[in-house]
Every structure is written in C-alpha cells, then in structure tokens.
Amino acid sequence: MKQEKISSFQLGCLCFAFMSGFSTLYLLEAKCLTQDVWISNILATIAVILTLVISSHIQKQFPQKNFGDIIIILLGKWIGKVLLTIFMIDLVGLGVLSVRSIALFYTSAILPNTSPNLIMLIVFIVTIYAVSLGIGTIVRSVLVILPFFIISIIVIGIFIYRDVEYNPFLPQFQHPINMYVYGTMISFGFPFGKSGVMAFLFSDVSNPKKVLLSCSVSVTFSCLYLLISTYLAFGCLGTTMFKTASFPFFSSIQLVKFGEYIERIEILIIGIWTIFTLFEIIIVQYVFVKILGRVFELKNTKSFIIPAGILFFAVAIKSFLLPTDLITYDINILPFTIIMPVVIVPIVLLVLTWLKMRKSGIRPV
Known about the structure:
Blueprint: H1 8-20, H2 28-33, H3 37-61, H4 67-75, H5 77-110, H6 116-133, H7 135-161, H8 177-189, H9 211-237, H10 239-244, H11 248-254, H12 266-295, H13 305-318, H14 323-337, H15 339-360
Helix pairs in contact: 1-7, 1-9, 1-12, 3-8, 3-9, 3-15, 4-5, 5-6, 5-12, 5-13, 6-12, 6-13, 7-12, 8-14, 9-11, 12-13
C-alpha cells in the first residue's frame, strides 16, 4: 500500500464518511427509545469523544509509531500480537456487517431479484481496488463526494420538514434509566463505536496534534446528522409507521416530491449512502491489511490486499444469511462486544503508557 500522509482535515472528513454511511439505515436505538433517542445519541457521542481523547493522548507519547506498534511496545510482542489479531477479527466482523447491510438494503428495496452474493462480490471488487490505491487517494475521493452529500441531505431535509406536523422529540424523559443505558449502548455500538478504527490512522496524519480536534468535530457532526434524520423520519412517518418500517429514513425520503412530476429522488440519496458505506468497508480493509503487516512483520503488504478482500467476501457469504440475523446482532451482541476493543483496551493502554512514562522519567506530552 502507498504510505502517504494526509492532513487532519482530510482525516476528519474521512471519519465523518466512515461513521455516517448507513448510520441512518435502521435507526434501531430510535425504535427502542422513540422520542428520547436524542439522549442516547448524545451520550454515545460523548463516550466516543472520550475514547478518542485517550487514543490521541497515547499516540502523542509515541509520535513516530502507529497504533499497532504502540500496542506491541506496551503489551509485549506476543500479547500485543494476540490483541492485534483480535482487532483483525473485529474488523472482519465490521466489514461483513457493512457489506451485508448494503446487500440487504438493495435486495429488499431496489433489486429484489438480484443475488446478495453478487452485490457483495461487486462491492469487494471495488473496495479491493480502492485499498490498493492508498490512503491518499481514498481521502481525496471522500472530499469529492462529501459536498454532494451535504447539499443533497440539506435539500431533502427541507422537503421532508414540510411534512412534519409535530415535534417527535416531545414529551421527553419518558423511559426508565436502564432503557437509556441500553439505548446508548446500541447507539455506541452502531454507528459511533466504529470511530475506534480511526486510531490506527493517526500515524498517517501529517500533524498528529490536530487528530483529536478533527475526529471530535466529525463525530459531533455525525451525531447531528443522525439526530436530524431521526427527527425528520419520526415527524414524517409517525411513531407507529416508524417502528414498523425496515428503513425509516429511506421511507420518509420516498415521500418527497419536487413539484408534480419529479419523484423517486431517493435514488440520489441511495447512491451517496452506498458510496459512504463503501468508504467504511475500504477503511476497514485498509486497517486490516495494515495490522496484518504488523502482526507478521511484513515489509510489503500490497500483495495481501486481494487475499484479505477474498477473506472478507468468504466470511460475508456464510454470515447473517437472514435479515433478522443482522438486526439481532446489532441489538443483542454488538452493544456488548464493542466495549472491549473501543473502551477497555484504550483505558488499559493509557494506564500502561502512564506507567512506562513514569518509569522512564519522561514527562507525558
């Protein structure tokens, strides 16, 4: 892979695209908390920003190392490699979830007679090629697509808002505390917890001091986008239809018309959604190959890009064969399994970094 430095602004845009792809596809936390969903989204955002603070602080103490190197330095060669292998397994799971979501959406709403395996094959052909181009090309592609996304979402939002007849976030505080905790965990698991992958890209930034700011701003805007989408979908569809719809925000977009004759503008949004989700899978595969090179101490990882893509595709074919499997995993498993790599590991690394700095007599940066 081409090792090219990117700016903190590019990292922020990439982080936003990485998190926002299909973040509005299911809106599972909204179906759980209804009008109080904004609380879970905000709490999850705060939690993710705190984990980014920890990860960026660790990265500052080892400015010439990538996050994989730092893990091995702090935990030792063998324990560190075992942990990186676990991260690789998590990345495969994340990539499979994303590609399966694309296949489910297309076979349910657009191409019902198309094989999901064919859709996933096309996706992985695209992502394998993108990974081979390197991180610089990937982020430049994000910068090209992002303005179209922002403009289209603003226009669509304005037209949906005309059909909103009440404030769907009222009345507030209608659920017990345990429901807020569970809703926050769902929101943290998907989409906000994915931001933990960004830590492995910190070393690719030319100015590491600004990675925290750029990623925090991106996470905040992702939260804002999710809240606006939820508000519009709830207000347009109503609570009952929102809960029964497979893809609530998409259903609300389908109701939008420009004038008397222009309909089906949701196709534009679908295209942008798909591209953003492709960016998510691309970054997951890029980081996977990057960690693979560190685990096996490979000097050139480019020859492993295609085998890695084939691995993702093979696992995807055998995983989440039913639509209910995806939803069940997102609700019952992901909120708990994401805690270890995104929360516990950074805290452990922070403690070990502090102990190492103290033992060496080095003042933390």
